[in-house]
Write a structure and sequence with these properties.
With about 675 residues, this protein is α+β, with helices and mostly antiparallel strands. It has 23 helices and 25 strands.
């Protein structure tokens, strides 16, 4: 197994260094994912075919005829990306529609219908290939990165997309001390931005003083790392370009130009921010353009007339005309609307509802498929090591407490009750296909053993009980866990309720309460919680792209140890000094990230880091790799088959790998 994974890694590194695509095996004529060629030349070289005629949606052809749009050949870049559809050349027309329970965040069934990154992940789920960029090059020492844009590529409002949009972002946004007093993120190395050289209108070069072996993965994984913003749009909000920016901010209700600029920038940031648009027709390179929001909070999008991809017949994508975001009250309503057939597609259902989905397929006019939900854990729990409740800190930091709380959980029962026995009971762990997986990891203190849990808690000195039978802290107060969280998936709620009952059974008084997502994030990110829980989207390429965020302070969406992370980020100037164990974990991660990518040293350092992270039991996992139900209108084509072998994962931004731009409605609607 290790040798197979190492060969895959070598191919992966080759692809990164050369920009080559390692496509899925198409020898039997069946695709797991649709396939993308970098440009017309790459398509011709791979297939022997050429594209010299262009097609467009009838709604756009009408606008061309009316003189409202230039012809399609003038709207496409000279070298568009070419998409080989999953099954067939599609038909134009129809509306994609999906839900969200949050008015400004998330809503993956809508965000991922339009998300386009500078680079993207290929169908082998490992190599990085061009997307918005036509091509890229990397120096042998991983310090110089050159990106080539597509000549004639335009924003959705028809303005040219050029390297000036990169210069603006690096110099006027990231480099502006009022907007970014201390720039961070994927483009920063040792606290410094790269030297950015604009070679010409379509070529930009970034040069670092140190190697950046994981930069391409970050750029190919997260839309926020695309390295540009539309200068022609944002300069109206920037004081360096508009001397009256503060007056404009006051008119729009902001406290100064900085607040205004950052608010306007939000929808251009991370994936989960893409639903925060307020300005109709603000320029984008994404598949669809925001048009309006109604009084119910539903949002409406229309096709990007300047979208940069075509199918293998030369038809400009997307096939569908519009996209609609349906705002729903809660997860239950979201599911009910899916069953009634109100969505064109639905990826955020629960396995518990799978029988109900199947029973209602004919009435709802949809079909149900499944894909493996591939990530480190479906629902992992963390105790906040820097909680403001200082009496709990020593308890949480004692590994015996975490071991006890872990073995108190009946994962087999969780699997049966919540996942019909179809998932894998597991500690928070890398998936078996990870280069750094070891056999001990999924089962590490993951057995159901309440006797051992009680023994460990007693050994800690938590052997005294109150009148109700709950354990007392060393200060004589009842040990109480405030399990207050938000959940985007009903299966998480059910697991949370079961875990609460298991912990109460071993004498640790626990109260489970769901709160609004925004409040939960505010409390969690402000270090105001005793514990937190979320899915652990931990796959190798994802961890490389986000700086090992799920495996060390502050442990991603679990957000534990904020004050330790502040100390580590500031070289001890802020926050609280962590224990030596955490310093060692942090340093091991830094060495791993800095190693030559794919080298023996990289593999060795990675294994060391993973062993430290998993061995510390900083997170308590539950279930891994369940089937994820995916619903599709029966006439929505080029979508994954019922028995898809594709992976559903945040690392790949779920729907993005299935390229919704090539979905189409049979009959056009």
């Amino acid at each position: 197994m290790k040798r197979i994974r190492f060969v895959t890694l070598l191919l992966f590194v080759f692809a990164l260094l050369t920009g080559a695509a390692l496509a899925q095996d198409m020898s039997e004529g069946e695709l797991v994912y649709p396939f993308q060629y970098a440009d017309l030349d790459a398509y011709a070289a791979a297939t022997g075919n050429s594209i010299d005629m262009w097609g467009e949606a009838p709604v756009l052809a009408e606008q061309v005829a009316a003189g409202e749009l230039p012809p399609v050949e003038e709207r496409l870049p000279s070298q568009p990306a070419v998409v080989q559809p999953l099954e067939a050349i599609g038909e134009y027309g129809g509306e994609l529609a999906g839900p969200t329970t949050n008015p400004t965040c998330c809503g993956w069934d809508v965000l991922e219908m339009r998300l386009q990154k500078l680079l993207t992940i290929d169908t082998d789920l490992a190599s990085i290939i061009p997307n918005i960029a036509r091509a890229y090059e990397v120096s042998d020492d991983w310090t110089v990165f050159t990106f080539h844009l597509r000549e004639g590529h335009r924003w959705s409002d028809g303005e040219p997309f050029t390297t000036e949009d990169f210069r603006f972002y690096f110099e006027d946004v990231l480099g502006n001390t009022e907007l970014n007093p201390a720039p961070g993120g994927a483009w920063v190395a040792d606290g410094e931005l790269p030297q950015v050289d604009i070679v010409d209108e379509t070529t930009v070069r970034m040069t670092y003083q140190i190697p950046r072996p994981t930069l391409l993965i970050s750029v190919g994984s997260e839309v926020n790392n695309r390295g540009f913003r539309p200068k022609h749009y944002f300069q109206q909000y920037h004081i360096d370009y508009n001397p009256d920016a503060n007056e404009l901010a006051a008119e729009l209700g902001f406290d100064g130009w900085v607040q205004m600029f950052n608010a306007k920038m939000t929808p251009y940031n991370n994936t989960w921010n893409l639903g925060a648009e307020t300005d109709a027709y603000s320029p984008t390179l994404n598949t669809f353009v925001f048009v309006r929001e109604d009084s119910f909070g539903n949002k409406y999008y229309e096709r990007n007339a300047y979208f940069f991809k075509v199918d293998t017949a030369g038809n400009q994508l997307p096939y569908t005309d519009t996209l609609r975001r349906i705002l729903v009250e809660d997860l239950q309503v979201q599911d009910l609307k899916a069953i009634s057939g109100e969505y064109s597609h639905y990826g955020w259902g629960t396995l518990l509802s799978y029988p109900t989905y199947r029973e209602n397929e004919e009435a709802g006019g949809y079909r149900t498929a499944t894909a493996e939900y591939s990530r480190g854990n479906e629902y992992s729990i963390m105790f906040n090591f820097t909680t403001p409740n200082v009496e709990l800190r020593d308890i949480f930091w004692d590994i015996r407490f975490r071991q006890a709380m872990s073995v108190a959980i009946n994962r087999e029962e969780l699997n049966e009750l919540v996942y019909f026995g179809l998932a894998n009971p597991s500690q928070n762990s890398p998936v078996p296909s990870s280069l750094f997986f070891e056999d001990w990891m999924p089962g590490y203190y993951a057995q159901f053993d309440p006797e051992l849990a009680n023994q460990l808690l007693d050994e800690m000195g938590l052997d005294q009980r109150d009148a109700d039978g709950f354990r007392l802290r060393p200060d004589g107060e009842t040990l109480f866990l405030n399990f207050q969280v938000s959940v985007p998936e009903d299966s998480w709620r059910q697991m949370g309720e079961l875990i609460t009952s298991y912990w109460n059974e071993v004498g640790v008084k626990t109260s489970y309460k769901l709160i609004e997502t925004g409040l939960y994030r505010e409390l969690r990110d402000g270090n105001q919680v005793d514990m937190a829980a979320w899915g652990t989207d931990m796959l190798d390429i994802g961890e490389m792209s986000n700086g090992l965020a799920n495996m060390r302070p502050q442990w991603g969406a679990r957000a534990s140890g904020h004050l330790w992370r502040d100390w580590l980020d500031s070289d001890g100037e802020e926050g609280e000094e962590p224990p030596q164990e955490i310093k060692d974990l942090w340093d091991a991660g830094e060495a791993f990230l800095a190693a030559p990518y794919g080298s023996d040293e990289w593999l060795e350092l990675g294994q060391e880091f993973y062993n430290l992270s998993m061995g510390g039991l900083y997170q308590i996992g539950t279930i891994q790799r369940p089937p994820q139900p995916l619903l599709f209108k029966t006439n929505l084509k080029n979508t994954p088959p019922n028995d898809t072998t594709g992976q559903w994962s945040w690392t790949y931004r779920q729907w993005v790998m299935f390229m919704p731009e090539q979905w189409y409605f049979e009959g056009g609607s």
